[in-house]
Amino acid sequence: MAGLDPDDWSGLRALGHRMLDDMIDRLAAQDGQKVWTPMPDTARQALRRPLPRGPTDPAELYDEFRRRIVPYALGNTHPRFMGWVHGGGTGIGMLAELLAGGLDANLGGRDHAPIELERVVVGWAAEMVGMPASSSGLLVTGSSMANLIAVLTARRRAAGPAVRSDGVGGRGLVGYAGASAHGCIPRAFDMAGLGTEALRLVPVDGDHRISLPALADAVRRDRAAGLAPFMVAGTAGTVDTGAIDDLAGIAGLCADEGLWFHVDGAFGALAALSPAIRPRLAGIERADSLAFDFHKWAQVPYDAGCVVVRDGQAQADAFAQTLAYLSREDRGAAGNAPWPCDLGPDLSRGFRALKVWMTLATYGADRLGRMVDECCAVARHLAARVEAEPSLELLAPVPLNIVCFRVASGHADLDWLNGELVKDLQEAGIAVPSTTVIGGRRAIRAAIVNHRTVPADVDLMVDGLLELAARR
Ligand SMILES: *Cc1c(COP(=O)(O)O)cnc(C)c1O
Question: Does the predicted TM-score (pTM) go above 0.70?
Answer without folding.
Answer: yes
